[in-house]
Design brief:
Layout (H helix, E strand, L loop, with lengths): L1 H26 L6 H28 L10 H27 L6 H22 L6 H36 L7 E7 L18 H8 L2 E7 L5 H10 L21 H7 L3 E6 L16 E4 L9 H11 L4 H17 L4 E7 L12 H5 L11 H9 L16 H31 L6 E7 L4 E2 L5 E2 L6 H4 E2 L1 E4 L7 E8 L3 H8 L26 E7 L2 E8 L2 E6 L12 E5 L15 H18 L11 H9 L5
């Protein structure tokens, strides 16, 4: 029995060593600590020991496999080898099926081969000596554990050196900055924006101590151009990418500026098209796709989060953000941290106890089409073009969908709250410029659709925008129109880097130049001369559809709304105000022509990016 337990210890050590070294090399030393390694080793031992007992039993009772005459050293080698090879095969299967990229899988296989076979060979060689096999095997385990610890410290020294290099050139007014982009979060479902349900109590505390932009709008309806606008301060027509989901290398991002000003820059993103695959991470020292691009923590944690908790990233990402902050602070560095979380992106997951709280006054038995509602909430088709799917929906049907969406938002807020509380206890929260926003909103049944189709109506354009830094940012509410493009210049001005802002940014520094009430804003998604455009000008909103694909599903070319009289955008003034319509169309044409940047090079979207777009429903 001791021999079998020893074999399980060796096999689980090989597995945990392979995984830990792979994570350390891929993601850095910030959260994969020696303690996590030891915990992983212990948990894997609990799983491998019963497997080895079963294998040993089979080898004793199956005639062709009987090994009663085989010496203990051979048994130890065989049992540990078969077990770690089986476990590694399962690990490879999990990684390949979980990640939306095959980057560095070869590295994982090489690490596994070196560690696994060298360890089992060493045990086999040492066990040939007459001395105690258990003592020699334990010695090998200690050596392997020391190897993993050494890799951790090597990575720690490597990134510590980078921190020291950054500190030499540090030149900013703010020690740390954190940009949190909540994917698919619509403004009117945040309790700090007046929503009747308490969906975001922890974000509310941040908003109460800083600026809350009451009327902030996205520059587009989908993830890549929205993020690029946040990072560059430019409208989609200025991105120079022909409307493709890719950030050109010559487009200056806030990360590149802060990198040069001495910040250690780390990206933690859950949506694969909000990071490396669209080139958004240029300028970052470390970029980690928490869900979809990088294997960031051991399999047992991954499985628990994915299948038991049904986490979409928040539960995993915020502890990593906390660990990164603490590590950088210990090293005396200055951190710019970008966090992207996919809650509440579809598919909507019911999170308790929030869902039950939000459904307290909802009679679920009165929902006539529960099976269809569950389908609509699970689907990754971002546009349900067949409006007949909604014809049998009742008020309870829509409230049920909203409750699922709200439970996702509350779940995210809970984990953000733990992150903010940790920073507060360590004194880092008040030393961090914190910006919270979203890339776009979401339809929850309005206009007979769910998701974020290219309609540029308010449910998909209205976003939260909150900024906090005690001493520099007063507690106030801005009621004038603001936009994604204001994040870039406002952050850089607050951080004392205003001279680095390009002249052609579209955004304003909200600390120095409050927008006027009639400030025009542009939202768009355009390729060549086609696309869909939106102009917000005071109380009026113009939408022009020049897309050859969309009219077969949403047959309109121009919409005009009075947002003061018709906030629900239900009454089209196209025929009633022809002079106003023509004036806004002329303004939109002149503006878009003036700022549009043509790409000098042909931009090719990678197969990986296309696969990610398909997985998220953007490509059919």
């Amino acid at each position: 029995m001791i021999l079998l337990f020893l074999a399980s210890v060796v096999a689980s050590l090989i597995l945990s060593s392979v995984e830990s070294i792979y994570i350390l090399l891929s993601c850095g030393p910030f959260w994969m600590t020696p303690l996590v390694f030891l915990k992983t080793w212990a948990i894997y031992t609990l799983f491998t020991f019963p497997a080895i007992l079963l294998l040993n039993t089979l080898l004793h009772i199956i005639p062709p496999l009987k090994w009663r005459w085989i010496k203990d050293r051979a048994k130890l080698t065989l049992l540990s080898t078969v077990t770690w090879l089986t476990g590694f095969s399962a690990l490879i299967y999990l990684i390949i099926n979980d990640l939306q990229t095959d980057d560095s899988i070869t590295n994982l296989i090489v690490i596994a081969a070196i560690i696994g076979f060298s360890t089992t060979y060493l045990i086999w060689r040492l066990s040939r000596e007459p001395s105690n096999i258990s003592i020699r095997s334990i010695l090998v385990c200690l050596v392997l554990a020391a190897v993993v610890t050494s890799v951790y410290f090597v990575q720690d020294i490597r990134y510590s050196g980078l921190i020291k290099e950054r500190n030499v050139s540090f030149n900013a007014r703010v020690p740390h900055a954190c940009l949190l982009v909540i994917d698919t979060a619509r403004r009117d479902h945040f309790s700090c924006y007046g929503y009747e349900k308490s969906t975001t109590p922890n974000i509310d505390k941040i908003a109460a101590g800083g600026i809350l932009c009451q009327n902030s709008f996205s520059t587009t309806y989908w993830t890549p151009p929205g993020h690029i606008s946040i990072f560059t301060g430019k409208n989609p027509l200025q991105h120079g990418n022909d409307g493709k989901p890719f950030m050109p290398d010559d487009l200056l991002s806030i990360t590149e500026i802060l990198n040069q000003r001495g910040f250690f820059c780390v990206a933690l993103y859950n949506n694969p098209i909000a990071g490396r695959t669209i080139n958004l991470t240029q300028g970052f020292d470390v970029d980690v796709g928490v869900w979809g691009n990088t294997w960031v923590y051991p399999a047992w944690m991954r499985i628990y989060d994915k299948f038991i908790v049904r986490d979409s990233g928040a539960r995993a990402t915020f502890p990593m953000a906390e660990a990164t902050f603490n590590w950088v602070e210990r090293k005396g560095g200055h951190l710019f941290l970008y966090i992207n979380v996919t809650e509440p992106h579809s598919e909507y997951v019911i999170h308790e106890p929030y869902f039950s709280q939000f459904c307290r006054d909802l009679n679920i038995d009165r929902i006539p089409n529960m099976q269809k509602i569950n389908y609509l909430s699970r689907t990754l088709d971002l546009v349900l073009y067949d409006s007949t799917l909604f014809h049998d929906c009742s008020a309870e049907s829509y409230r049920y969908i909203e409750a699922m969406y709200d439970s996702e938002l509350a779940y995210l807020d809970h984990h953000f709250g733990k992150f903010a509380e940790s920073l507060s206890h360590s004194g880092l929260l008040d030393e961090t410029l914190l910006v919270i926003t979203s890339d776009h909103g979401e339809f929850l049944g309005e206009y007979w659709t769910i998701g974020h189709p290219p309609l540029l109506l308010n449910p998909v354009l209205q976003i939260p925008l909150i900024m906090r830094y005690p001493g520099l940012i007063p507690s106030q509410t801005i009621t004038e129109f603001t936009s994604h493009v204001d994040v870039f210049p406002t952050m850089l001005n607050l951080m004392g880097c205003e001279e680095t802002i390009p002249e052609d940014v579209s955004g304003l520094n909200l600390m120095a130049e409050l927008p006027t009430h009639d400030r025009p804003l542009l939202s768009a998604s355009a390729k060549d001369e086609e696309g869909i455009y939106c102009l917000l000008n005071g109380r009026y909103k113009l939408i022009v559809n020049a897309d050859s694909y969309l009219p077969q599903y949403f047959p309109y070319d121009t919409l005009l709304f009075d947002l003061e009289a018709d906030p629900g955008e239900l009454h089209n003034l196209y025929d009633e105000k022809p002079e106003l319509r023509q004036a806004l169309v002329t303004q939109l044409d002149e503006w878009s022509t003036r700022i549009r940047v043509k790409s000098d090079n042909t931009i090719t979207v990678s197969e990986e990016t296309i696969a990610n777009l398909k997985a998220l429903g953007y490509v059919h």
